[in-house]
Specification:
559 residues; alpha+beta; 4-stranded mixed beta sheet; globular
């Protein structure tokens, strides 16, 4: 009778437990909450991402090419973090549908699949793998593809920064996962676009050198060619047309601006217009070195902009920067193509002192000039500067292709000559360069003291020319000598986003995530202890628990 009562009590307890679980499960469908217990809140999405996901109208399909179980440890970590962030996206919107794919799973068709990925622009990362004592080179595709309807966007998952360890690159990659996916979704869903004017008419950089950047901008903004001379007889109308654009980009002009053109731009800035200036003040190009002497003269190039920039708070000097941290130049030799030192191609490592250059890899420049900042009420933030091992040279100066091959005195490149400013952000209420001066022409509503605005001035027009090195297209965006994919495009996109007050995406880019990695040296020094703690101790605890449980049961049922 007592056994029957115990049996009924156990059955009753089981039924109550099942009912409680079903009730919690049912309530969970209506009351959903996720908790991020990480110190860095890596799984807490930003407001920009949440708003983007909540506004989705159509399903977004995301294919991640990091499937499979045989990935190296660091890529398994990247895969797990990618899955975690996509699960968080899906929790915010049922329109996010993702799938992990292993391109090498089907061995018979793997090669065909890989060629298809190559054709789509997915460049692999080659990893040395050791299986059963045999070394092999494994191709890994750290990419995703986001699709909606007929539109698709590539999503890079891996950051490959110069001079840092694989663990640090994975850490950076994890930091940028939210940015990468939200940026892709934004590109797929953006409808209302702001206008960007690309200045024409002063012999700016050729379209083929800036095409990749402009095509990238086109995914977010309307791109319009704008010629200041299109309405020479109606400058008022020219200004009104320019004011319809939210930003103006002036990329490497080589012909001077006349006073009327400058005044149009000055009044555009006074009315709150934003500008991105990419300026060369020294006339020199690699093409000019392709002659019998392999040398040429670099000379000052007057664009008639000095008084404007001076009034706004900067001065671009007629000086070139030489930097020991630079990219080589390619020359033809009897043995084929050879790399030689070329200190006029500095590569700039970001100091991450502003959201614009946060998590930015190396930026490549060519014949960069030096900038001085001047005292006024404008806030100035240095975005780009040369390395401590750099110096400036005045112009005019003769430049030879092989001048750095012999007799290079590295002691001349030090902290007192280096850290030269190349790019600067200006923010505040600008004063007109024509205040208290005779105006080139009459405007209806002239402004001498401007509205709040901002502009970025970079003393290198070739910063936009990042798909070419030595006038040759990069293969897959990789420099064959440094094996680097430069971040010029990412930096310039951040500049544009910031100038147009679209800080959501670049704030996500600046997100800090700290992954905890094992200290490999300590693990090696304490391998036996670590092995016992991670493998032996859990088994020992389980065995002790089993013995204790068996002992208690014997005592209980022996009575």
């Amino acid at each position: 009778m007592e056994k029957m009562a115990d049996k009924n009590a156990n059955l009753k307890q089981l039924v109550i437990t099942v009912i409680i679980l079903l009730a919690f499960n049912f309530a969970g469908n209506y009351f959903f909450r996720r908790y991020d217990l990480t110190n860095d809140k890596r799984y807490t999405l930003s407001e920009t991402t949440i708003n983007t996901l909540q506004n989705l109208k159509d399903p977004i399909y995301i294919d991640v090419f990091l499937g499979g179980n045989d990935l190296p440890p660091e890529f398994k970590r990247l895969k797990d973090e990618t899955r975690q962030i996509l699960e968080e996206y899906k929790s915010r919107s049922q329109n996010i549908i993702y799938n992990f794919i292993d391109p090498l799973e089907d061995e018979e068709n793997a090669e065909k699949y890989i060629q298809e990925l190559y054709a789509m622009g997915f460049n692999p990362t080659n990893i040395n793998s050791v299986k059963q004592g045999k070394k092999s080179l494994v191709q890994i595709f750290p990419w995703a593809l986001a699709n909606v309807g007929q539109k698709s966007v590539r999503v890079p998952l891996l950051v490959n920064n110069f001079g840092v360890s694989a663990d640090e690159n994975i850490n950076k990659s994890v930091q940028l996962l939210e940015y990468a996916f939200t940026d892709a979704i934004t590109k797929l869903t953006v409808d209302k676009k702001k206008n960007i004017a690309i200045l024409k008419g002063n012999n700016e950089i050729a379209d083929k050198y800036s095409a990749d950047f402009l095509l990238s901008l086109k995914e977010y903004y309307n791109i319009l060619d704008f010629n200041l001379d299109s309405l020479q007889n109606d400058r008022q109308k020219t200004l009104e047309n320019l004011k319809r654009c939210d930003l103006a980009i002036i990329a490497k002009p080589t012909q001077p601006f006349d006073e009327k053109e400058k005044y149009v731009f000055d009044q555009y800035i006074m009315n709150g217009g934003k500008c991105l200036w990419l300026i060369d003040k020294v006339a020199i190009d690699l093409d000019s070195l392709r002659n019998e002497t392999r040398s040429t003269l670099a000379y000052p190039q007057d664009l008639n902009l000095d008084d404007m920039f001076f009034k706004y708070g900067v001065r671009i000097n007629y000086k070139l920067i030489q930097d020991l941290l630079s990219t080589p130049v390619s020359v033809q030799s009897p043995n084929g193509e050879t790399a030689i030192d070329w200190l006029y191609s500095p590569i700039v490592k970001s100091e991450e002192n502003h959201i614009i250059n946060k998590n930015i890899n190396l930026v490549k420049l060519e014949f960069a000039n030096q900038i001085d900042t001047l005292k006024n009420k404008i806030k100035k933030t240095v975005l780009l500067k040369s390395s401590p091992q750099s110096k400036v040279v005045g112009t005019p100066v003769e430049i030879g292709l092989f001048q750095f091959m012999d007799k290079l005195n590295e002691s001349e490149f030090n902290n007192t000559t280096g850290n030269q400013i190349i790019g600067v952000l200006l923010e505040g209420k600008f004063t007109s360069a024509y205040k208290n001066r005779v105006k080139p022409f009459t405007l209806k509503n002239n402004i001498d003291d401007g509205k709040s605005g901002k502009m970025i001035i970079i003393a290198d027009g070739d910063i936009i020319n990042y798909t070419y090195v030595n006038k040759k297209p990069l293969s897959g965006g990789i420099d064959q000598w440094t094996q680097q994919a430069y971040s010029n495009k990412e930096f310039l996109l951040n500049c544009v986003n910031y100038l147009l007050d679209e800080n959501g995406l670049i704030n996500i880019r600046g997100k800090n995530v700290e992954l905890q990695f094992l200290d490999k040296k300590k693990v090696a020094d304490n391998y036996t202890i670590a092995q016992f703690i991670t493998v032996g101790l859990p088994i020992l605890i389980l065995a002790l628990f089993g013995l204790l449980f068996t002992y208690i049961r014997k005592r209980q049922y022996s009575k």
